[in-house]
Amino acid sequence: MSQPKPVFLAGHITPIRGPCDEPLNITELDVELLEKWDAYWLRTVKTVIEASVKAGLKNDPAIRLRKMADAIYLSLTAPLLLEPLPVEELRLITAPRFFYLWLLTRDTQLEGEFFGDEKGIRSLQALSDRETADEFLRKLEEHVRKEGSPLHAFSALLNEDTHREVYELFLRIPADTRPGLNTSSLVVHLLTTAAIAYVLGLAEGLDAVELELLRLAGLLHDIGKPLAWREMCEKGIYVSHAKVSAQLAQELLKDLLEEDLLGRLASLVKYHHAPDGAPEDIRHLARRLSVADGISSAADRLAYVVADALAEALGVSKAEAEKMLKAGGKEAWGKWLELYREKAKELRKATEKAVIALRKWASGEGLGEEGKPMAKEELRLGIVDIRHIQNFIMASEELKGLAAGSFIVDAACMYALPRALCDLELCLAKGGEKTAFLGRLAPECILYAGGGTLIFLVPTKQGGDKELPEMLKEAIRKLLGRELSHGLDIALALVKLKDPFLASLREAHALVQAEKLKLLKEPPEGSIRLGIGRSCELCGRRPAVKEKEDVLICPACGARLDFANNLVMGLAARWERLGLEKLTNLTWKEVSRYIMEFIAGHDDPRRIRRLRNFCLLKFDGNMAGHYMAGACSISDAVERSIRVDVAAKRAVRALMKAIEDGVGELAPALEAQAGLKDPVGLEKARLALGYLYIGGDDGLLLLPAWL
Fold it and tell me: What was the pLDDT predicted at 16?
């Protein structure tokens, strides 16, 4: 009787949902799932890379390598960002996608078209001007429609099908198949290995080509694992994932990278576990990649936490279990294949116990861990926290001001701060000299951005701690505009990256909270008020200096209103792009004074017989902070943050679906009695019009009260 083929397992620290919505701690890596991984790289990722490197680049190998790495980063991260409302017309203008748009266009002539003007860097405040905003959106739409354009390829990443595909790969394909180590994400491991390799290379002063080659190798070093696992299961013998990864990397980039560079890249990937065997010209890079891979794996897989679970399930000592978890190579994997064939139940039990052990450790036992620095203290973890977000958003009593305020906070967190860390031109001190801090980070160095918080990796040796907070604040002002960013402030903490990652994360959070308390004691930014002038009629906080839309307002509120009116995020543009003029037979000019009445449910708010009301829906995950503090690894922290964000947005989409189903049942009667052309489309558009903000674990929406 033939032996059954082994099936590898993935463990889930936060359970995922099964086909009947049941919570699952363990899932199997079936052949179809592993094939999806390869197909995504060779179909979608390759298309984005091809479009990126054909976008009018300078003849510079470092820039070419950077664009390839940027394209891979975008292909792994952008689809995970689910939009709150499934409205096609609004999908390209959210705040994080300004950062993605900049990454797509940097180092090309498109960067100047979208982000530059005669003065240099164009701020988002420039889009407060109607002509500038119209031109920006016209160019954006033109390039999205253009076959072969980077934006055309990128827009394909933003559809619902791609989100589902990448989200499944992100959640279900681990970086390791050994029980206990199979709780880390392969997507996150690729990103963090590239980030750590890049930061170490930056600290050591590698030249631009070697630095970008090292980064690209980090992003590709394990892409062959799913194919290697599949072959191991089919053939029952060891297959080197490093060799398979090198072959896939060559297939992915053939004809896009000159032969010499492609050969060096493939060798880096092939020898990342055995750097001393690499060709002499890249051996120093292979060693750095190997170190980065080891640090990323150690931070993610926590072998010493899960060893007890494996030992108990297999009936071996803890020392033997730790040896099994650390050993690699042909002989070690031959034993694991044998175990998966002969002791599948025990390995499933080991995975279950390891998941429970990691949860327990992160929520209790891990609290006492002080940790030890990684990589000879060359790495640091940074956290930036934007202060008083709700106060900033609610500073205006105008709906347009609220919408703009929420967009600006997101733009500060998910566009301005990440770009400041990745854009060399923004890392300038007041004399025009580059700060000693970093120069230019890779986007993978930003582990998380959202909900007013940015978590990132930086080199220790570069120094410049004193300059960084002011540099970041100035970058926010420069990229958003002085008036749009007025009132935003940040708190910053930097700590040594330690093993376990949990120790660094909690230390950094504690320091940033202490910094926020210290900043509370400082006098607020703004003018000295003598009580003889008139206050802004929207925020009531600053002196009014001009009249706009029949109210006296301050410059900051004026900039917000102009920005809201002219960008797609603005209500006038939303009215147009949601097709509300066609649905209601009303122009924006006719309805703009009655927008709250329209959101309340009046189809023609100029003719009201019985007044309907609207509600302000504000939600906040009050246990989300506790949940995030329980993250035990980098993979776990990134996964939790993305899952919280996606869950909040899927909840709003569920509301949209409930409206569609409920109104759909009444549609024939509504069409006949009220003369409505498309009742379902009208109610969906009404919800989209009242959407203000959703990010992380909180949100703000205006809805008809009947909902």
Answer: 93
Q: What's the mean per-residue pLDDT of the chain?
A: 84
The secondary structure of 61-72 as a DSSP string is HHHHHHHHHHHH
**Distance from first CA to last CA of the chain, Å, rounded?**
62
Q: Which two tokens stand for residue 9?
A: 């397992």
Instruction: Please tell me the distance from the alpha carbon of residue 56 to that of residue 109, in angstroms, as a whole number.
Output: 7
Residue 489's pLDDT is what? Answer: 86
Nearest-angstrom CA–CA distance, 578 and 1:
63
What does each C-alpha distance from 625 to 74, 592, 696 come to in angstroms?
27, 39, 11
Instruction: Give the pairing type, strands 551-553 and 691-695.
Output: unpaired
| Residue located via tokens 């940015």 | 454
Residue at 201: amino acid letter? G
> Is the pLDDT confidence value at 430 over 50?
no
**Residues in the chain, total:** 707
Angle of helix 259-270 relative to helix 241-253, nearest 10 degrees?
160
Nearest to 427 by CA among 379, 468, 466: 468
Q: Which of 154-158, 570-574, 634-638 has the lowest mean pLDDT?
A: 570-574
Contact 359, 307 (CB under 8 A): no
**226 residue type, one letter:** P
Bridge partners of 699, per DSSP, are 619, 694
Helix, coil or strand: residue 120: strand
Instruction: Measure the CA–CA gap between 264 and 262, rounded to whole angstroms.
Output: 5
Phi, psi of 623 (to 5 degrees): -105, 5
CA-to-CA separations, 236 to 229, 240, 333, 337, 348, in angstroms, rounded:
10, 13, 10, 7, 19
Distance separating alpha carbons of residues 264 and 270, to the nearest angstrom: 10
Q: Would you tell me the crossing angle of helices 634-673 and 501-520 to the nearest 10 degrees?
A: 70
Residue tagged 């700590």 (tokens): 495
DSSP state of 703: E
CA distance 242 to 245: 5
| C-beta of residue 385 within 8 angstroms of C-beta of residue 696 | no
Contact between 93 and 83 under an 8 Å Cβ cutoff? The reply is no
Contact call for residues 519 and 489 (beta carbons, < 8 A): yes
Instruction: Tell me the C-alpha to C-alpha distance, in Å, between residue 697 and each of 90, 416, 626, 641.
Output: 21, 21, 12, 9
Report the distance separating Cα 43 and Cα 707, nearest Å. Answer: 42
Q: How many CB atoms lie within 10 A of CB 431?
A: 5
Mean pLDDT of 458-475: 75
Taking a C-beta distance cutoff of 8 angstroms, is the pair 644, 627 a contact? Answer: yes
**Residue 652 — pLDDT band, cuts 50, 70, 90?**
confident
Among 193, 151, 175, which residue's Cα sits nearest to residue 55? 151
Task: Give the bridge partners for 9, in sequence order.
Answer: 28
Per-residue pLDDT tens over the stretch 318-346: 999 999 998 888 888 888 998 998 899 99
Say whether the peptide bond before residue 61 is cis (omega within 30 degrees of 0): no
Say how far apart CA 512 and CA 465 lie, in whole Å. 14
Q: How confident is the model at residue 537, as a pLDDT?
A: 67
Cα 338 from Cα 236, distance rounded (Å): 9
User: DSSP letter string over 478-539?
Assistant: HHH-TTTTTT--EEEEEEE-EESHHHHHHHHHHHHHHHHHHHHTSPPSSPPP-S-SPBPTTT
Determine the average pLDDT of the residues in 571-596.
Answer: 83
- The token pair at 531 is 């009580």
d(CA 495, CA 489): 21
